[in-house]
Design brief:
Elements lengths: L8 H9 L5 H15 L6 E4 L1 H16 L11 E5 L26 H8 L3 E6 L11 E2 L3 E2 L15 H8 L6 E5 L5 H7 L2 E4 L25 E6 L2 H11 L4 E4 L2 E4 L13 E4 L10 H16 L3 E3 L7 H17 L4 H11 L9 H9 L3 H24 L2 E4 L19 E4 L2 E4 L4 H8 L5 E8 L5 E7 L5 H14 L7 H4 L7
Parallel strand pairs: 2-3, 2-6, 11-12, 11-13
Antiparallel strand pairs: 1-3, 4-5, 6-8, 7-8, 7-16, 9-10, 13-17, 14-15, 16-17
Helix pairs in contact: 2-3, 5-6, 7-14, 9-11, 9-12, 9-13, 10-11
Length: 493
Amino acid sequence: MDELAFLPAHELARMLRRKQVSAVELLQLYLGRIDRLGRAINAVVVVDAERALLRARAADAALAQGQSWGPLHGVPMTVKESFNVSGLPTTFGHPAYRDNRASSNAVTVQRLLDAGAVIFGKTNVPVSLADWQSFNPVYGTTHNPWDLSRTPGGSSGGSAAALAAGLTALELGSDIGASIRNPAHYCGVWGHKPSWGVVPQAGHELTSRESADSFDIAVAGPLARSAHDLSLAMDILASPLEAMTPLGRVPLAWCDRGTPPQRCRVAVIYDDAEAEVDDSVQAALRALVAFLRHQGVVVTEDARPVDSAEAHAVYIHLMRAATGSHYDDAAYGVALARQRDHEPGDRSYPARLFRGNTSSHRDWVQTDELRYRLRRQWAAFFEQHDLLICPVATTPAFLQNQQGERWERMIPVNGHTQPSTDALFWAGYPAIVGLPATAVPLGLSPQGLPVGAQIVGPVFADPDCLRFARWLEREYRAFVPPPSWQAAGGPAV
């Protein structure tokens, strides 16, 4: 049965419909793997076995009577710890919230349940979802199944690690700083950051807030072992299709050009002065470009949609203004004191962080005006190009390092080191203007670590990104499990 653990969710759903396997059997498969192997990576940190088994039995009984709950009928899956699941803890990694149990489901969780999913647990995150490593005082550290000494990414690190290790069939994550895309890249799976506003955020918060959708960079979206699963999940998560606006949620139509992948006009970026990209990542992108050209795809390598330095500055400032706006008085006071330690012209990450955290409304409005200019420039770019492909991060997964501040943790790039926070440039490139981006695996680095890229499209053009990703999965690279996890015995710890 262990070979079923690595199948895509849509194939498992088909097997369930054909009664080739039962929901109970699949659930017990994943629960068994977590029990035998899960401690090595510590990805699934909350298990709800009893309720899940009741639901799996009900799913099998319904199917025996010819009833279908939806496209995920009986499929076992987990969700990121930060999404509310009724009766389960939501802590965001904070010990003070260890006993905080949700009284209702997040909108996204309810949509997955309504589609027939069997949600049996939750996956690990960093504290406050604020790291590209997934460790916290409540649940401990999650490890990358490709190399247990390395990070699986963050903040949806538990999500990607569980998928890669065959511990779950599908995952729900969130993304403000590549928190879906980065773990997908580090763990060799797929992830989709939707256009901002199309997937509701309600129920993805530590404490109840009416303004859950007001983080107009943050999104919720799926991670999976297949681009086809991303499309299936988006059909569920974004239905009914609507977008968040200043007037609330309004009906929406996808921007779907329907262009066949081979006829797409694709721009590619390998590197940038704002965040130098390791040769191992650039090599994977160049190999992809060779494949695309062989397939007849028109590829441009010298087109840039926006000024990189401006895009980086706007992203960091507005993201940190958004996160800082929810600080309590004590945390805000600390940020204000640390902001005063930096000169106004200081472009270092900590200077930008604390300036953003303590931004005035006037500063925010002026910076947001620059974002409107970036939006126009991106729109003009997509009149000449259908898609942009670029790095997700500057390197493959780096060694676990929990010492000091994020910007003090150095990672090797092309023979020297750079702060791990430099890679946030690639996170913000599409995110600051709400564009969709699909993370796809491209291969392995010389060290045997996964390397991926992100496919970026115009706003609300999620179907175009996902269609191209499905084509790449079919024609270029499908999911490859970490070798030591394919066997029932699992990795050596």
